[in-house]
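Supplementary Methods S3. Complex input for the 6-O-phosphono-alpha-D-glucopyranose-bound model.
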Amino acid sequence: MRGRSSFLIVANRLPVDRVGEGTWRRSPGGLVTAIAPVLQRREGAWIGWPGSPDERLDPFDHDGMHLIPVPLSASEVELYYEGFSNATLWPLYHDVVAPPVYSRVLWDAYRTVNERFARAAAEEAAENAVVWIQDYQLQLVPAMLRELRPDLRIGFFLHIPFPPGELFYQLPWRRELLEGLLGADLVGFQRPGGASNFIRLCRRLLGLQHQKNEIHLEDGRVVRAAAFPISVDFGEFDSLVRQPHIVERAKEIRSELGDPECVLLGVDRLDYTKGIGQRLKAFGELLREGSIKPGEAAFVQIATPSRERVEEYMRLRDSIELQVGRINGEQGELGMQPVQYMHQSYGRDELAALYLAADVMVVTPLRDGMNLVAKEYISCRHDLRGALVLSEFAGAADELRQAFLVNPYDIDGLKRAMLAAMRATPHDLSRRMRSLRRRISTYDVDRWAKDFLADLES
Ligand code: ADP
Ligand code: G6P
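Predicted complex, serialized as structure tokens:
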């Protein structure tokens, strides 16, 4: 039997999490930010997990999207999601900034859950449908789905970095993952380096020939691998921050902070890849040595709770909270704390107001597929004010050359960049911001999806 959707998104998570009877909240992370507007503008459906264990829900419509829940048991959440996806693949693909866990039990759960997603997609897809599979949690789905439904056009996009052979070789299931991805017609990466790492590994590990970005399989099929840097809904943020209530809220935020000369801002999932500790260290040292005067600057760090039962994330939370406490304890005064740390998730309006209130946006990942926060900040600054401090190790650095680029491991360099961003002239800032905005307004998320889908369907 064939299903009814001619366009299908398959992702680990649905764009909303269930938080109570009939109540939904937007799920965290860049994947959802990018893909939700793409589906809202097209006829189609989204297959994914509703965010809590043992939820068996019927398909439903939400915010202009048709959503098809795939259940995960408590043990699958532990072994497939927290385990293989986020304790094995996530650290391995992000330069092993934390040590990956290799365990056969986790791998077995990953395969089982990938099979479930493939079966759900096979049931929902109409004849010759386009199915677009997302991210590292589902790398086996392309081949499993092709086996079930050879009529489909299958695309895969990896939102995180794809590592070089030197790291990927560690993975005991390295061949299986490559073979899984090769079930797609088109495999998309954030950066050209990810695509070439993949092509090289297919040659070295599977002995496959390639011509430019086309990989030739033994059965005659051809799989293309290419870079498609993901982006944000520029228009949504650009118009949001022009609304009077957001402008008002931005002013209010500055006054709540005590109207400092400079507001620095970090917005991230609380993840060890984001370099939050490095940026706090740099800020703390600038205060301690007097480069920033007391009361001159406030650092606001918003950190969304993320993967809270994974050990490395618990450790990170403790270490960031200790660091914030130290800086405020040593450098603060009664009623004035230099770092405002919030372990919370915020709505779009509040985020937009924060972006508008911030003089310096500090984005310092140790490794990041793209980093949409950097692009959201730019989308909000139609006033051509504001400076972006951006890590060289974020995919976004390829496009955003006019940012204050930094190596986040180099704390002195980070301090210099933060100070330079704080002290830059309005003329310099507007020149940089104009060029950054030109890039993001042209290459927005719509353009990204169009480019990928046009290539997939060609
Ligand atoms: P990642 O996908 O690794 O989380 P990105 O920077 O690419 O990193 O995307 C993060 C997304 O999550 C952005 O759209 C950002 O606005 C959103 N986000 C991050 N922190 C928060 C927060 N505290 N509250 C609400 N949304 C957040
Ligand atoms: C990153 C990943 C996404 C993931 C998101 C949130 O953006 O690339 O696949 O959905 O983080 O992480 P979570 O584990 O909460 O889904």
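The CA atoms of residues 187 and 225 lie 5 Å apart. The radius of gyration is 22 Å.
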